[in-house]
Amino acid sequence: MKRIYLDHAATTAVDREVVQAMMPYFTEAYGNASSLHSFGRDARNALNASRQTVADALGAQANEIIFTSGGTESDNLALKGVGKGHVITSSIEHPAILSTCRYLEDHGCDVTYVPVDSAGMVDPGDIESAITGDTTLISVMHANNEIGTIQPIGKIGSIAKDHGILFHTDAVQSFGKTEIDVQKMNIDLLSISSHKIYGPKGVGALYIRKGVKIEPLMHGGGHEMGMRASTENIPGIVGFAKAASLAIERFEQDTRHLTGLQDMLIAGVMDSIDDVTLNGHPTERLPNNANLRFAFVEGESLLMHLDMKGIAVSTGSACSSASLDPSHVLLALGLAPEDIHGSIRFTLGRGNTESEIRYVLEVLPEIVGKLRAISPLAGG
Amino acid sequence: MDYSEKVLDHFANPRNIGEISDADGVGTVGNPACGDMTTVYIRVKDGRITDIKFKTFGCAAAIATASMTTELALGKTLDEALAMSRNDVADALDGLPPVKMHCSNLAADALHAAIEEYLAKS
Question: A350: distance to nearest CA of chain B, Å?
């Protein structure tokens, strides 16, 4: 059976060019970047070049980039590294932020969770009103992982700057899909991850603006300018940098491709199926996200039927994971739990084609019809 | 969390779906807000379930357990059907993921509710 992957917000396939770039660093240039000999120098040169590439992609300086094990570690390092007193975040952050905020609360921090509107948008005015004399950090994600809503982080960045407060953004979902400039947007700390942009898993980075003092999580050797001890994962870092440079190089082409498929999918579903709603913002959203709500049916059933047809999506209900709780993001939009249970997320990628979307549009109405036929909630 | 072959079969090809317009007993359990709701309809003759249908809003486990419940209950006496437990249904499906045992395995309760409604009327 042909398989169609529409879950790129979860992870992506590693680009073949990225794999090629990584290969020499496993078996030939395998040195430790801290070693003084030629093997170490080869690794160090690769590390420095990668750091410059990732910095360039963000409008940052190379010495402001710390490589980590991924988005979760970057978020932890940012929040635990500078958060004290009072921290402001949003109610729709990724668990890597929300769980870290709970940890900070357990350790004496106050945290304000600013709400979002029905499209998932944070009001910068709410952020400003939440600021107190103790506020040290504002952390608001750039784009949401479930609904793709893009936050006005430039505005939030200038509010933070005006008040002399640090601003962190989790840009794991937006990096490579929307423009990011840490200078223009007044960002002090920014988390990114490699495996969302066709790079390898287990690598990420935290941008730390020059002059921002941060408490490391990992203690050991003086790697990563003392911010993150542990021998650098050179193949992973090289792969991440290659993926980042490809994302920049292909930005316009990718955006056009993704937006085209996104429009085709959303319009196609709306045309062929009744009682469907798009979750999230109509325009301020990632070019690859379509989070759709199908009345009277449950998302996991839809997911399983699509899976049987070879189509991979994800639910908003989290019913397929260990937790049965409805999505905190969709709850924050003000949706009723029964509507949340009927939501599924399609996230498109570079490799998807129009014919794949046509196939989805071919099988989806029948699946929804079948589930509605046995649903006690569907009238008639 | 993987489903057994039997769960996937009953989910993809549910048995006894629909309603019985003049049912002798109807039972509904669950709540759409929780993500699972099942209604079971029964027809009873000489103390036996002679027809049974269901409707379910819910995940794959909820649909499969409802389908299996109707298959197990069809032809049983009311006493036999009342003795059927959620565990019997799960066992007949070669088990359910632990997280699904509580919320999504509702159909035996809906069957019992349908029988109780019938008994209360008759």
Answer: 29
Nearest CB partner across the interface for A298, out of B3, B8, B35: B35
pLDDT given for residue A66 in this prediction:
98
The tens digit of pLDDT for each residue in B63-81 reads 999 999 999 999 999 999 9
pLDDT at residue number A317? 52
What residues does each domain of chain A span?
16-249, 251-373
Residue A316 binned pLDDT confidence (cut-offs 50, 70, 90): low
Mutant choice from A294, A296, A304 vs B, greatest count of B C-beta within 10 A: A304
pLDDT tens digit sequence for A105-115: 999 999 999 99
Nearest chain A residue to B8, by CA: A304
Q: Mean pLDDT of all residues in chain A? A: 96
Q: Is A242 at the interface with chain B, CB within 8 A?
A: no
CATH class of segment(s) A16-249: alpha beta
- DSSP-assigned letters across all residues of A172-232: TTTBTTB---TTTTT-SEEEEESTTTTS-TT-EEEEE-TT-----S--SS-TGGGTS-S--
What are the boundaries of each domain within chain B? 5-121
Cβ neighbors of A9 (< 8 A, separation 6 or more) are A145, A146, A148, A173, A196, A288, A289, A314, A345, A347
Please report the pLDDT score of residue A320 as a whole number. Answer: 44
CATH number of the domain located at residue range(s) B5-121 in this protein: 3.90.1010.10
User: Which CATH number among 2.170.150.20, 3.40.50.2300, 3.90.1150.10, 3.90.640.10 corresponds to the domain A251-373?
Assistant: 3.90.1150.10
CB contact under 8 A, A374 and B17: yes
